[in-house]
Each structure stands twice: as C-alpha cells, then as structure tokens.
Amino acid sequence: MANSTTVRILRDGARNVTLHCVGVLDTSDVAVVDVLALADCAAPIPLDFRIDEVEFSVSGVMSVQLLWKANTDVVCLTMAQSGEFEFQDVSGLTNNAGAGKNGTLRLKTSNWAATIQTYSVLVKLIKMGA
User: Domains of the chain, with CATH numbers?
Assistant: First the structure.
C-alpha cells in the first residue's frame, strides 16, 4: 500500500470554510501538499483565510504541520497526539507568510515511524476579504 492523503471541503459558505484532511501513512512522511487554495472556494472567492478552530488526532510519535504557502512557507500550527485549538478569542490565526504569500494552506508530516500512522485534521476557516 502507498501513503494516502484525502482532503474534503465539508462546508463552503459565504463566510466559513470547513476542511477535513485524513492521512494513512505506511511508507514515509507526507511531503508538503496543498490542502486549500483560494480558488478552491465557491463564491465569494476570498483574498485570504483566517483559521478559527482546529481539531486533530495524530497517531504515534508523528506530528502534522499546517503551513501558509509563500516564497518560504511559514509554519502556522504543529499538532501531535490529539486535541483542539480555538483561536476566535485572539481573532484567529492570520496568514503572516510574507513575500510570495498566496492564501494557500499546506500540510506536511514529520517523525513517521516504520508502522502505519494516521492523522485526521478538521480546520474551520473564515474567508477574508471576500
């Protein structure tokens, strides 16, 4: 079997986007993959995203990172084991990627062990500038 990464947009409204990423890794870490681009959204197309909430479950010693795409990607959040983060009280996690940022959210894993490892990440975002 080969590594499998599935990304589904569960909700895409005028303001909110909910994204679900699921991975089953049996051969290596996931290299950086795009999980959500501005053009993936239904109208109104946003200029950027803000992350308001993340729920996650990551097996073993593996970790999952969400990154903002730019000339040099910027780590937005690192997750291990299981839990949730809520960022509404601090106005969300905004894209601070700098030069070359284009609003794309990316994902990668680290510390894959030589067994089957899994992750599930649910991301609730707000469309900015839509």
Answer: 4-128 (2.60.120)
Other beta carbons within 10 angstroms of residue 102's beta carbon come to 14
CB within 8 Å of 45: residues ≥ 6 apart: 38, 39, 130
pLDDT-derived band at 8, boundaries 50, 70, 90: very high
Residues 6+ positions from 79 with CB-CB distance below 8 Å: 54, 56, 58, 63, 64, 65, 66, 119, 121
Name the percent of the chain lying above pLDDT 90. 92
Residue 77 corresponds to which tokens in the numbers above? 């959040």
